[in-house]
Write a structure and sequence with these properties.
The complex is a heterodimer of chains A (239) and B (321). By secondary structure, chain A is α/β, with parallel strands linked by helices. Helices cover 40% and strands 25% of the residues of chain A. The longest helix of chain A has 18 residues. Chain B has 321 residues and is mainly alpha-helical. Chain B has a domain of 205 residues. Chain B is globular and about 55 Å long. The two termini of chain B are 38 Å apart. The chains are: A alpha/beta (239), B mainly alpha (321). Chains A and B meet through α2 and α3 of A and α8 and α9 of B. Bound molecules: adenosine-5'-triphosphate (ATP) and magnesium ion (MG).
Chain lengths: 239, 321
């Protein structure tokens, strides 16, 4: 059994089926790409797995346990971390304090220890001057902080929702390297939602493609990118 | 810790406050007692505000405390000091039970519900005449310390010290990080493992506990409680205006605001009866518009070249959600 598995995961918003019968699995150490046109249900899928929304039907298993109806903060503690597409860093806290949260509340550390751990993990991502407020840091630093915040939970599974958006080519390359090394070093299964196909190609072992909430293709990037249905979905989405 | 001043100033202020009865005449002492009463309430209100939840129910838990104290003395034969503690515990327990329901509400829905609760408390007590004395209220046959004003003042000062201690404990512990995170963004907070409901409940219960204690002390100070007197909306409005004026999301702001506005209110009451209410209203509006970080926030941003100013404002976004 995989670390994270969903079976027939479905979420409706009124008449709209945002995620439709999605069954997938993700193992530690694996990097999975989740792609699909705008509005295909990628973010909603992450919201279901992280507990922001409850599914209309279907189930979520994590390390062999059914977590389908667990609260979001319990899933974070259990080992499912995520970043947000619409980043909302906590603006009343410093960068360091943002990162300390996971150590404090997911792992139950004391303040002093959490501070040390936050400094260490930020250092490993090249994030410095942690006393700054989050309004004072660059986009790249914000993205690194979001990853550091997620890692502070000590996750086994990590979802990154368009973490490269807003970065230039060089910064994107740096982030791709970071995600790879983070996944390897901490043996984390990473689900990457991204619109930039070169990032998906360089980063992922395997890809699932969503359209209208359904998985329409799955497999290695080279294979999926040649799939006529996938090409049609993207052209249709762009038209 | 950072600078010796941040340790010294509160200590000197406390010493000055404690010595005041030895040098002050009866009228200034009465004013000071009233200022301290509102100060404790202002601090307690701010403690919940740090989570983003804006309570309009201060008078509700204050009045509940006053009645809990009165009834525990009159019907339960409790000692005065014990009755004050009971007032806090009772208000805290009511907050715990009600909080389980109303802390699911956010923004303006929470605020209005707390306002309605205070009114419900008042109506229940007013109509449950057999037990509560109804609209005429209750009179204590004997005051604590026999009504001796210096001791009463010190008792209120003790409540302020308790409020400051609890507030500082919030600030120096993980509770500050939890409440700030919840106020900024609940989804992000939960994604870091923060049990949002638990921390909201802690803040609501502790702040209601303090309000209950202050109500219990007020009862012992005046020896009288009636629904109109103890549920007076002034007990909500004034602490709120004080905290906003002084600066929210920390202990110093409400303390400074209570000192300034409390003393100002006393003069206003003398010179323009009821005019003070207008002044509170104007202050609230002006502060929110032009000085959202309050006086203490202003002071801080002067001292530090770059200050996290954006954090200290009543989050307008929370009302638009
Ligand atoms: N809370 C909600 N209420 C109603 N509809 C929603 C809600 N959240 C998402 N949707 C709808 O569900 C569909 C899927 O949205 P989702 O955000 O998951 O797409 P996405 O694949 O992440 O898109 P993008 O690439 O633009 O980020 C969209 O049609 C969206 O409007
Ligand atoms: Mg999305």
């Amino acid at each position: 059994m995989s670390t994270l598995e969903t079976r027939g995961l479905t979420r409706r918003f009124g008449g709209l089926v945002a995620v439709n019968n999605v069954s997938f699995s993700l193992d530690r150490g694996e990097i999975l790409g989740v792609i699909g046109p705008n509005g295909s249900g990628k973010t909603t899928f992450i919201n279901l797995v992280s507990g922001v929304y409850l599914p209309s039907s279907g189930s979520i298993m994590f390390k062999g346990r059914d977590i389908t109806s667990d609260a979001p903060h319990l899933r974070a503690r259990a080992g499912i971390a995520r970043t947000f597409q619409l980043i909302h860093p906590l603006q009343s806290l410093t960068v360091r304090e943002n990162v300390m949260l996971g150590f404090l509340f997911s792992r139950g550390m004391r303040l002093r220890q959490a501070r040390v751990e936050a400094d260490t993990i930020c250092g490993s991502l090249g994030l410095e001057r942690l006393d700054r407020g989050v309004a004072e840091i660059t986009m790249l630093e914000t993205k690194k902080m979001e990853i550091a915040r997620a890692l502070a939970n000590n996750p086994e599974i990590l979802f990154l929702d368009e973490v490269m958006a807003g970065l230039n080519v060089d910064e994107t390359r740096e982030m791709v390297g970071l995600v790879q090394s983070v996944s390897r070093r901490h043996n984390i299964g990473v689900g990457v939602v991204e619109h930039v196909m070169s990032v998906i190609r360089d980063l992922t072992h395997r890809v699932i493609v969503l359209e209208n909430g359904e998985i329409i293709a799955a497999g290695p990037y080279e294979e999926v990118s040649r799939n006529p249905r996938v090409i049609a979905a993207y052209l249709g989405g762009a038209a | 810790m950072r600078r010796p001043l941040s340790f010294l100033i509160p200590l000197l202020a406390l010493a000055a406050a404690a010595l005041l009865p030895l040098v002050s005449g009866p009228y200034p002492l009465a004013v000071a007692r009233s200022v301290l009463t509102y100060m404790a309430l202002a601090i307690s209100w701010d403690m919940l505000l740090r989570s983003g939840q804006i309570s309009f129910g201060i008078a509700g838990f204050f009045g509940l405390g006053a009645y809990a104290a009165a009834l525990s003395v009159l019907r339960g034969g409790m000692s005065p000091i014990l009755s004050i503690l009971f007032a806090g515990v009772f208000a805290g327990a009511v907050a715990l039970i009600l909080g389980l329901v109303i802390l699911r509400l956010r923004a303006v829905y929470f605020s209005i519900t707390t306002l309605a609760l205070a009114e419900i408390f008042r109506v229940i007590i007013q109509n449950w005449s057999d037990f509560t004395g109804g609209p005429e209220g209750l009179v204590l046959p004997k005051l604590i310390f026999n009504g001796e004003s210096k001791s009463l003042y010190w008792l209120v000062l003790a409540a302020v010290v308790i409020a400051c201690a609890a507030s500082t404990m919030f600030e120096k512990s993980r509770i500050r990080l939890a409440l700030s995170a919840i106020r900024n963004n609940e989804q992000s907070a939960a994604a870091s493992g923060i049990g949002i409901f638990k921390y909201l409940l802690v803040a609501f219960v502790v702040s209601s506990f303090i309000q209950g204690i202050v109500g219990g002390i007020q009862l012992q100070g005046y020896g009288f409680a009636s629904p109109d007197a103890v549920f007076d909306s002034n007990y909500t409005l004034l602490p709120l205006a004080m905290a906003l004026l002084g600066g929210i999301h920390g202990t110093p702001g409400p303390v400074i605001g209570a000192l300034l506005l409390g003393i100002a209110a006393e003069f206003l009451k003398l010179h323009i009866p009821y005019g003070h209410l207008v002044v509170y209203g104007i202050i609230i509006v002006l502060v929110i518009l032009f000085m959202p970080q309050g006086l203490y926030g202003l002071l801080r941003s002067r001292r530090h070249a770059v200050a996290p100013v954006a954090e200290n404002r009543v989050d307008a976004g929370a009302w638009g959600k």
